[in-house]
Amino acid sequence: MLIYLRVLKESFNFAISALKNNRLRTFLSLLGVTIGIFSIIAVLAAVDSLKKDITGSLSALDNSTIIVMRFNFGPSDIPRWKREQFPDVTYEEYQYLKKSLPNLEAISFALGVPGGAALKYQDVTSAGVDIGAVTHEYYDIEAFELEEGRFFNEPEAVSGAGVVVLGHEVAKNLFGDSNGVGREIRIFGKRATVIGVMKKQGQSLFTGSRDGQAFVPANFARRVYGTTKGTVFPQIVLKPEDGVDNDEFVAMLEQQLRNMRGIKPGEINNFFVNQLQGFADFIDNITGQLNIIGLVISGFSLLVGGFGIANIMFVSVKERTNLIGIQKSLGAKNKFILSQFLFEAIILSVIGGMVGLFIVWLVSIVASQFTGDFEFVLSPLNILIGTAVSALIGLISGIIPAISASKLDPVEAIRTGM
């Protein structure tokens, strides 16, 4: 064991010596490894950061959450012209499912109000606010965190009372740092009382932020917009009870809605049941494909780096032929010489890899500063992958030069070195 530690130490010294004595040659050789590792880890870090952002955005809703609407989250075999004829889900269907659907933990009716709205308090206006018009059960489906006040209750939701829950940024724009709960604002040109303010969430690159939203009772928005198709985008959001078989629940949901709409056996559904778990799987599939494409492209850079390491090792073997001959004449075994050059190749490659990782780290810090709340993450796993890959490249690149060095005849090596 001690002999290998000594070999490792000597190989490290030889590697450092090569860096010092042949700076330009070593720099050019290691540049390929540095660029290759930078490319691979940058791709992995970027995809991981995007996935983390998307997952964090979706984490407010449980993966078991189901959204029923006339649109589909993903691709569909149903022709577009036919999908465009699907009717919107209705408030009455929400009420029917709420009463008849078993194993239901929570269900909410929601309207997507297009274009946002302007909220006004005295002479201050917050324009372009994303409005979520929902029933009171939505609070039990999504993980809301309120900083002040409360969410609207069932009587307020059913009556369409003029109450509103504001996102953190909207409340700050309207009221500054003061408490907005209890104050009266105007939304859709109508009066509404602020009953709650959500905690600051931060910006999401993929799905936006709750900070710029406001929630009102669905029936409050229905009085303003009505139910004209294309004006609002109704949806029914459901959450099954824990432990319920998801496939059975979806089948029951589809059957109940088919019965209410009078869809005959053999006819296709004129609605879509979108599952967040399926959407999460879709995101995993996309990020997986991005990883593969990025790794293939980055692999070419790493291949060039491998050739650079192999080149510098062949040159190193040639320069130290005389020393190899002396070592073997003094009793050094082939595996000692082999290990010596392999360690050197690995150490040189890891140095290049560490430089690549350091550049990724710097880039991630700078990029995070320019993208607001979106954070680029260089995870410990990616650091481990980068180090392992660079060591592997050094091992593969150095194996042939190391074998050629270990098989040198001591007499010929000394003679050639002279």
From TrEMBL:
InterPro entries: ABC3_permease_C, MacB_PCD, Macrolide_Exporter_MacB
TM helices/strands, residue ranges: 27-47, 292-315, 336-363, 383-405
Membrane topology recorded in Swiss-Prot or TrEMBL: Multi-pass membrane protein
Domain MacB-like periplasmic core: 26-255
GO cellular component: plasma membrane
UniProt entry keywords in alphabetical sequence: Cell membrane, Membrane, Transmembrane, Transmembrane helix
Molecular function as annotated in GO: transmembrane transporter activity
Chief localization: membrane
Superkingdom to which the source organism belongs: Bacteria
Ranges where the ABC3 transporter permease C-terminal domain occurs: 296-410
Subcellular compartments: Cell membrane
Entry similarity comment: Belongs to the ABC-4 integral membrane protein family.
Name the UniProt record assigns to this protein: FtsX-like permease family protein
Protein's organism: Christiangramia aestuarii
